[in-house]
Amino acid sequence: MAVVIDPRVTTGDAVRAELRGAKRDVRGLAFQVLLLLCLLLPLLVLIVLLMRVISGAWSVFSDRGTDFLTTGLASDPAQAGVWQGLVGSFGIAVACILLTFPVGIARRNARQNSTRPKKPIHADTRKPEIRVPGVTV
After folding, report:
1. Is 80 exposed, middle or buried (0-12, 13-18, 19+ CB in 10 A)?
2. What is the pLDDT of residues 3-36, one digit of tens each?
3. pTM (predicted TM-score)
4. Is residue 70 included in any domain, yes or no?
5. Residue 4: left if φ>0, alpha if ψ -120 to 50, beta else—which one?
């Protein structure tokens, strides 16, 4: 059976006609909906948890303002703040960055310098040259 191609129809027209066709990809659409749900469900859980934390902490922020963030340790929990925790977390993050980047770069350089050059692929598979006197190739 021969396929007849209309020379007046361009590739773009053929693709457009196929995309506008009556057939729908139900399995593909179901997979896209499933992926969207897998994205939105954890996002919803995160939003609910953040709202619970904010609603629980709202009384502290309304009573103390930014004093809660800038005050250090105290024996009275009502007067305690989180400044040491914030500074410590920031210090650990900076220490990790200052340690991991140089170590990673040194590891890469050591790995590149320690590898021996490999034999060329053609070293064992090349045919021997045969030279015949008086014949030039």
Report:
1. middle
2. 556 667 677 777 777 777 766 778 888 999 999 9
3. 0.43
4. yes
5. beta
